[in-house]
Design goal:
single chain; alpha/beta; 6-stranded parallel beta sheet; about 45% helix; about 20% strand; elongated
Length: about 700
């Protein structure tokens, strides 16, 4: 068989300085390139980028914004298969399948004296095997040609051939089929109708000879007069009949793949070539079966299928796990934060108020960590939600900065905000812009004990630039290049003063790049840091359309009756307490069926509907109520989803079910009251877009 060097392609390499966008354009321009090696300055391979996985990532909704301007090293396999170009293909394939089958599917790099010599793929190995098989098929045809001319010469080549071959007499089968001109359709139909199992068919075939290669393949010292059924798998007859459909007029069947078994019951995947040879006394009296071992090829394909299925299953499991954990963690957090908010409204002593505040802030910190982990998981899966809206930048900056200005003041740190010429309306995702700014300001205030924290926003040719500076601890020079990596802290020592997961800056970078922007940092240890965020968001000519908010009255003055569907006992207590503090009359039910029945009894002004409940879930209950309203011509009752699952695609599902808004768990008192008041005051309508109180 050939050497590896004969099947690799000297594809032009790239370096660590190459960006994902440049590589994407190259793959687009080179549709036949399956893999590209990443090398250092001395042409020594440091990684491999496989086309399929790379294009899948770059082709996702946010792939190019995420990776387009970043080094290809983030997308490469840093430990690819390396093989000397002078290695036999069969040796390399066997070793790789035994030791690193999954890696082989991503491709490999051939080297000469340790330096790059070319790249190859699983496809190139399969092609090499196919070429080898074609060469064997050519040898088979040559044998047939010789056989027609010289039977003795043919016999000698038959026995000396490295291809496993059986010579047999199938003239009885030919007569039994009553097909005296080989018409593929008729031949296959007769075989299918006349032979229900392989034993019947083999009774019409007499084995004449088997060469040494065939004895080795089947693991026997000698064959009997008849072909032994135990050597052939159940897929042999269906494969043979399918091959008969494409038989040619010279008596050659189409190649087909099946399983045979050696004498020790070891299965072997083979490609079978059948044909009738010239020179026989009767039609089909001199036939040959040639077997090509394709076990390794099939194994590679099987490994690829299994690896793909495993990766897809793992991704589904991760997504389901995160969704479940999000719900399971938010549910008890709702109890902690909800009751803490209730207690803050009670008549407490100063020390009790301080303790309750600690409980609430600790719960909010845990919620922030949970949100960061979920955001990072969505980013890694290419499912980061971006909502493009017109927003007022000045209002966003001021409202986001206000709580941090107060926190800085409490520490004796100055807080300065300057919008310069950037004030105006922009189109982008205001929630994600606010998230970036909040993360950076949180760090700035946390790490600054004296001096100032500043926010400067200036207009650029393509959008705006946010610069967040502080006079805090600063970042050591040996760690500044890593601060945007996941789970990295500026101070990772065991004596570090400040907590955190190390996810905030990583998320800021990913969000910035998802919007086509960038983030950078300049810092001096002991003097402070300056973070710069560039966002290429289009500036709009007019102010964003403001949501018209109907005037609302105090809930107690309205004598509101609210039906709450909630199965968790803790959340039931939280809801009842929060609403009764506001002067609301509350009714609690445990599932969707009870919610529908309670609505039918009447007397409610609004429904708070949990999403995940036993017996009947919230969306189903909401749909049922909307159907009954239409059938009974009853007025539409506002329904608010009360859920820990409040991502954009989930919210759309709730809207489709007929809900009018979403209150996210853990519940914030002010947002819950606001959502209730707005739902009661609004005209309402099935076509309204759900508002989210998160």
């Amino acid at each position: 068989m050939k050497l590896v060097g004969a099947i690799v392609t000297p594809v032009q390499t790239v370096t660590a300085e190459t960006t994902g966008g440049a590589l994407y354009e190259r793959f687009e321009a080179e549709p036949d390139t399956l893999a590209i090696a990443v090398v250092d300055s001395e042409q020594i391979p440091v990684g491999l980028i496989e086309r399929g996985q790379f294009m899948l990532k770059m082709g996702s909704a946010h792939g190019r914004p995420l990776y387009g301007g970043r080094s290809v090293t983030l997308l490469m396999d840093p430990n690819p298969l390396l093989v000397d170009r002078n290695t036999l293909i069969s040796d390399f394939t066997g070793d790789a399948l035994a030791e690193r089958p999954s890696d082989l599917l991503r491709g490999f790099i051939a080297v000469a004296d340790g330096r790059y010599a070319g790249v190859g793929s699983a496809l190139s190995l399969l092609q090499a095997a196919s070429d080898h098989n074609q060469q064997q098929a050519l040898e088979l045809r040559e044998l047939n040609r010789i056989a027609a001319r010289d039977q003795g010469r043919w016999s000698m080549l038959f026995h000396q051939s490295p291809l496993p071959q059986l010579c047999y007499d199938a003239s009885e089968l030919y007569e039994a089929l009553h097909v005296h001109s080989v018409e593929p359709g008729r031949l296959a139909a007769r075989m299918r109708s006349d032979y229900s199992d392989l034993g019947q068919l083999f009774n019409s075939i007499a084995l004449k000879e088997a060469n040494e290669a065939a004895h080795q393949l089947f693991g026997v010292k000698s064959f009997g007069d008849n072909v032994d059924l135990k050597h052939f798998g159940e897929d042999f007859l269906p494969g043979l009949i399918a091959a008969a459909r494409d038989a040619d007029h010279d008596g050659a069947f189409a190649p087909f793949e099946a399983t045979i078994y050696r004498a020790d019951a070891t299965p072997v995947d083979v490609r079978v070539h059948l044909r009738s040879l010239a020179g026989g006394e009767r039609p089909w009296s001199l036939c040959m079966a040639t077997y090509v071992d394709v076990t390794e090829t099939q194994r590679a394909a099987r490994v690829q299928r299994e690896a793909t299925a495993a990766a897809e299953a793992a991704n589904r499991a991760k997504t389901q796990f995160l969704a479940t954990m999000s719900h399971e963690i938010r549910t008890p957090l709702n109890g902690v934060l909800g009751m803490a908010q209730v207690m803050e409204n009670d008549d407490l002593s100063p020390i009790q108020k301080e303790r309750v505040e600690i409980i609430r802030k600790s719960g909010e910190t845990l919620l922030t960590i949970l949100n960061d982990i979920l955001d990072l998981s969505k980013i890694e899966a290419g499912r980061l939600d971006l909502e493009w809206l017109d927003f007022d930048l000045e209002a966003l900056i001021q409202s986001t900065g206000a709580p941090f200005a107060q926190a800085a003041c409490d520490k004796g740190v100055d807080f300065r905000l300057d919008l310069s010429d950037a004030a105006g309306v922009y189109r982008g995702d205001p929630v994600r812009v606010r998230q970036i700014l909040s993360n950076l300001l949180s760090n700035a205030v946390k790490f600054t004990e004296a001096g100032e924290v500043s926010v400067s926003v200036t207009a650029t040719d393509h959008g705006f630039r946010m610069t967040i500076g502080d006079t805090g601890a600063g970042i050591a020079s040996d760690r500044i290049d890593k601060v945007f990596e996941k789970f990295v802290q500026a101070d990772s020592s065991t004596t570090r003063r400040f907590g955190g997961t190390g996810l905030g800056l990583a998320i800021c970078r990913e969000i910035s790049e998802a919007m086509g922007g960038s983030i950078s940092v300049a810092s001096t240890l002991g003097e402070g840091s300056v973070f710069t965020v560039e966002l290429p968001l289009a500036r709009c000519a007019s102010a964003p359309a403001e949501r018209v908010r109907a005037p609302v009255a105090d809930l107690a003055e309205q004598c509101v009756r609210i039906l709450a569907a909630e199965d968790n006992p803790t959340n039931q207590v939280v809801l009842r307490t929060l609403l009764e503090q506001a002067g609301v009359e509350v009714g609690i039910v445990e599932n969707g069926v009870q919610a529908v029945d309670a609505w039918a009894a009447g007397g409610w002004d609004l429904i708070l509907m949990d999403v995940q409940m036993p017996v009947m879930d919230g969306p189903t209950a909401a749909r049922r109520i909307r159907e009954y309203e239409a059938a009974l011509k009853r007025p539409r009752i506002p329904i608010l989803a009360l859920t820990a699952n409040a991502m954009s695609h989930q919210i759309q599902d709730y809207v489709s079910a007929g809900m009018d808004g979403v209150v996210a768990k853990p519940i914030e008192i002010s947002k819950l009251y606001d959502a209730i008041q707005q739902a009661l005051a609004a005209d309402g309508g099935a076509d309204e877009t759900a508002a989210v109180a998160a």
